[in-house]
UniProtKB/TrEMBL annotation:
SUPFAM superfamilies: EAL domain-like, Nucleotide cyclase, PYP-like sensor domain (PAS domain). Residues 225-277 form the PAC domain. The gene is rmdA. Residues 151-221 form the PAS domain. InterPro entries: Biofilm_reg_signaling, EAL_dom, EAL_sf, GGDEF_dom, Nucleotide_cyclase, PAC, PAS, PAS-assoc_C. NCBIfam families: GGDEF (TIGR00254), sensory_box (TIGR00229). This is Cyclic Di-GMP phosphodiesterase RmdA. The lineage of its organism: Bacteria, Bacillati, Actinomycetota, Actinomycetes, Kitasatosporales. It comes from Streptomyces ardesiacus.
């Protein structure tokens, strides 16, 4: 088998070869087949150009049909084979990069025009031959009679033998002649169609312009027109056709007849309808699919003033468990049952149910007032899911979470509406599921912003949008600055400066917390080195220490210890300049594998602080096995100390924690100190260091240096 042609020209020549092989045996020509193929090649190129042109040029296609007559292809079989060849191979070889359905429709129109051109040329040739015969009648009357007979016989053979339906009528619409193909289309004998008027063949599905074009043609204002038209057969069934009607003029140009060419497209139309249904409906449940739903939603959202819409976005709770435990076949049967129940919920005008995919369904209602209607629709759906579904002898409980969006048409796009419904549905699922929630623009905005921040995080780190502020750690005994906690900030191009609570959870969720945490550690250790150099020059008592927070993700990262060692060595900073803060909740129930990296760092001289102590409800006895040297007492224990007198219960708790910590040789740091009275009370209770707005808000490293110099110089 030979390879398929590569370029467009090769494909065109291949089409011309197939065409010539089909037609040459029934052509009266003295040319060889290669010579005949060379004659057809420019005609094939013209057909290819008509097929792919922006607008359909029927005149060019008719000219190709007429050229066949000029090439001596006057046998009716030549036209029949030509039309078969064009129908089967023109789109295949000359329709690259086009829409197949559009190209097939164009090919059908092109065939009609070719047949019309062929018929007109053959009739013109017949008339020309008749004229020549008349002029030579005195000299060759016998020869003229024979030629006229042959010419009329050829036309009659084309008319009767054509594969498409052909009918001729006068300008009043009276049908004069029809061929066998047309009679077969209508399922009648010739006399039944003969004598009828064309204007009787109306159908309710006629396009608005059909009869306007007809009137223009019989008045001589246009030469032809092409429409898709339906006809009633005598038995009441419908015949769908591609109809081309052309005006036939006499030698003086006066309109004489109208020629109708019909292609039976009934089966093709039924096939297209079936394909359309399959393309717009879910194969499993029979519900409209995502594409069909978006068409309806777009139409609903583009409705006129005063129209509204309501949308319920349903996701089944725990459907994955059904698939995993009972198999996908059982899951499919469950989906079919749910689809049937949903379909029964949306039967009112303007309501529809669709399956978006998986276990996600959507119900849409439209009309002038959907505020209450969409709530009622959501309630009907929830009630429809109450009864268990029987699958393989098991009674399965069906639960679902629904996001409801309602509003006026014309304000949002389909994508925006569906996004809001999706966000709202997940809010219902997060609230425990088996419920429906109404869309909240503020909640949508928070989720969208959160998503935007999540996607922008990686590029933000590369572009250097993060910076660090430092909050001093002050010794409660003498008021000296002993160090600072590094707090990362994000200078977002649109949202401004964002605190760690806005993006650290996102970084932990995406895994970016590891490179971000490494960057924070590098910058903080480098700053600690600068502070120690300045303190040495300033004569401050004791070295400054930098506190850096570690997230749970960083704790489990295998490179934590080595990264820390490398950063300290590159900066030339001793391990005792660094304190790593780990939240109490991250270490609750921690096993030896999780604690091993912290123990190695502690053995090197790095301090480990237990942050937010008192919020994780950990067993105090666990403190003995944790490699920590500092307890950071959560601010919730000391808030009452901002007022006098302080809550005696809080005083006892703090006093007990401090005594326990000191007995274990642990230092105690207090967060959130905001008043002098609070600082004094904590000093009396024995706390070691503190931080808070009473001393300084987080700021640039220069501010900490200024505070340290003030403390050093008294």
């Amino acid at each position: 088998m030979s390879a398929e042609p590569d370029g467009p020209e090769d494909r065109l020549r291949r089409f011309a070869t197939i065409w010539s092989r089909a037609v040459f045996p029934v052509t009266s020509t003295s040319s060889t087949r290669p010579e005949f193929e060379a004659q057809l090649l420019p005609l094939a190129r013209r057909l290819s150009e008509v097929l792919r042109a922006r607008g359909f040029d029927a005149a060019e296609a008719r000219a190709v049909g007429a050229a066949l007559v000029d090439a001596h292809c006057t046998d009716p079989e030549a036209l029949s084979r030509t039309l078969d060849c064009v129908d089967a191979y023109l789109v295949l070889y000359c329709g690259e990069d086009g829409d197949p359905e559009d190209l097939r429709a164009r090919s059908a129109r092109l065939q009609h025009a070719m047949a019309a051109g062929f018929a007109e040329a053959l009739r013109a040739r017949t008339l020309a031959e008749q004229e020549a015969i008349a002029q030579a009648a005195l000299k060759a009357q016998g020869v003229v009679a024979e030629a006229l007979h042959a010419s009329e016989a050829r036309f009659r053979a084309v008319f009767e033998g054509a594969a498409i339906g052909i009918g001729i009528a006068d300008l009043d619409g009276n049908v004069l002649q029809v061929n066998e193909a047309l009679m077969r289309m209508f399922g009648v004998a010739g006399p039944t169609l003969g004598g009828r008027r064309a204007t009787e063949w109306t159908h309710p599905d006629d396009a608005p312009q059909t009869w306007r074009l007809y009137d223009e043609l019989v008045r001589g204002e246009r030469e032809h027109y092409h429409v898709e038209k339906a006809f009633y057969r005598p038995d009441g069934t419908v015949l769908w056709t591609n109809l081309t009607v052309s005006l036939l003029r006499d030698a003086d140009g006066t309109p004489q007849y109208q020629l109708a060419l019909m292609e039976d497209t009934t089966e093709r139309r039924l096939l297209n309808l079936r394909l359309r249904y399959e393309a717009t409906h879910d194969a499993l449940t029979g519900l409209p699919n995502r594409s069909f739903f978006f068409e309806r939603l777009e139409k609903a959202l583009s409705a006129g003033p005063g129209q509204r819409f309501g949308l319920c976005y349903l996701d089944l709770d725990g459907f994955k468990t059904v698939n995993d435990s009972l198999g996908h076949a059982a899951g499919d049967r469950l989906l079919v049952e749910v689809a049937d129940r949903l379909q029964a919920c949306a039967t009112a005008p303007g309501e529809m149910v669709a399956r978006l995919g998986g276990d996600e369904f959507v119900a849409l209602t439209t009309g002038p007032d959907t505020r209450h209607g969409v709530d009622e629709l959501a309630a009907r759906i929830m009630n429809a899911l109450l009864a268990p579904v029987s699958v393989d002898g098991r009674e399965l409980t069906v639960r679902g979470s629904i996001g409801v969006v309602e509003g006026p048409a014309g304000e949002r796009s389909p994508a925006e509406v569906l996004r809001s419904a999706d966000i709202t549905m997940y809010r219902a699922k997060s609230a425990g599921g088996n419920r429906f929630e109404l869309a909240d623009p503020e909640a949508d905005a928070r989720v969208i912003t959160r998503h935007g921040l999540t996607t922008a995080l990686p590029a933000a780190l590369e572009r250097g949008e993060f910076f660090i502020e430092y909050q001093p750690l002050v010794h409660l005994g003498d008021g000296s600055v002993r160090g600072a906690e590094a707090l990362v900030r994000w200078l977002h191009p649109q949202h401004g400066v964002l605190g760690p609570d806005r993006f650290i959870p996102l970084a932990e969720h995406t895994g970016l917390i590891v490179p971000l945490g490494r960057w924070v550690l590098e910058q903080s250790v480098r700053q600690a080195r600068l502070w120690r150099e300045r303190y040495g020059e300033g004569g401050a008592a004791g070295p400054l220490r930098i506190n850096v927070n570690l997230s749970p993700c960083q704790l489990t990262h295998p490179g934590l210890v080595q990264d820390t060692v490398d950063i300290l060595e590159r900066a030339g900073v001793a391990p005792d300049a660094l304190c790593l803060e780990v939240t109490e909740s991250a270490l609750i129930g921690a096993d030896d594998d999780l604690l091993k990296p912290l123990r190695r760092l502690a053995e090197m001289g790095v301090d480990i602080a237990l942050d937010d102590f008192g919020t994780g409800y950990s067993n105090l006895a666990n403190l003995r096995r944790l490699p920590v040297s500092v307890l950071k007492l959560d601010r919730s224990f000391t808030q009452s100390m901002q007022q006098f007198p302080a809550d005696p219960v809080d005083l006892k708790i703090v006093e007990g924690i401090v005594a326990l910590a000191h007995s274990l040789d642990l230092a105690v740091t207090v967060e959130g100190v905001e008043t002098g009275a609070q600082a004094e009370q904590l000093r009396i209770l024995g706390c070691d260091t503190a931080q808070g707005w009473y001393y300084a808000r987080p700021g640039p490293p220069e501010r900490l240096h200024e505070l340290a110099l003030v403390d050093a110089t008294g």
